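User: Quick sanity check before I run a bigger batch. Here is a single chain. Can you write out its predicted 3D structure?
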Amino acid sequence: MLPEADLARIYRSLRLIRRAEEETARVYPSDKIKSPVHLSIGQEAVAVGICDVLRPDDVVSGTYRGHAAYLAKGAPLKGMMAEMFGKATGAAGGKGGSMHLVSAEHNVLGASAVVGTSIPAAVGYALALKREGKGRVVAAFFGDGATEEGVFYESLNFASLHRLPILFVCENNGFAIHTPLSKRWASPAICDRVKGFGMPAQQIADGDVFAIRDAASRHIAAMRDRTGGPAFLECFTYRWREHVGPAEDYDAGYRDRQALTPWQTGDQVARVAGMLPADARKRIEDEVEREIAEALDHAETSPWPDPKELLKDVFAD
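Assistant: Done. Predicted structure follows.
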């Protein structure tokens, strides 16, 4: 077992993401949130396990379901909440919403709402970091649906050919929106396909935050000392809510609630909470609630963007 300080750090990250997303789901029906939301409730362990072994100067690339990666990397909840509220103090100035979180200060690359498009951007950044030569790495998060885009395989090939310091992280929740993997592929063996590009590929099937952390640590250490190149982790996980929005969708006909039960039983938020002394756990939970309350107040009271902002950052006269 890890030292208590490490467990506390991991639990705080897991708890912050879970509660921030639950509050997002609570507020969403009020129409205060001005963008679609793709919640990571149930999937927190992947981002936390990976980001816990990253340095502050390492880089994270996320997707439209990117709240967990953004927060796990240490980017501010206030910026995320204000962005979802469409406010000027948001992470993208209120222009991007939930699907386009970014934090240059925390090395979180701007996310994209288009499936798979953040992967080649992450590879390009990894090329820059290799040339920089300071041992920095990129962690690129994406869903299983993104592995069906041609640019995914082009990116694997380029990263392997140039031995780039990038960890490809597939958050495999089993559905490209509403279609099970078994109906999309004759063989579900994503790792086997990746290995064909000459890079190590590992599957973690139970969502264990510590197994994810250990695997990431091993591959990233090899990248830093240049004994290893890119690597791929397929982390099975399960989203508890609908594809987009705050509600559940087990009556939609594409999945059964019974499939959720083992993931709730093995919930990593509750698991890590149970490893901590009660007083330490309560202290963390109280801190998280204060941070969420402050972030919501910040989002509520922040100003709207100036209309002149519409003419900025559009790369046109």
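The mean pLDDT is 96.

User: Great, the batch can go ahead then.
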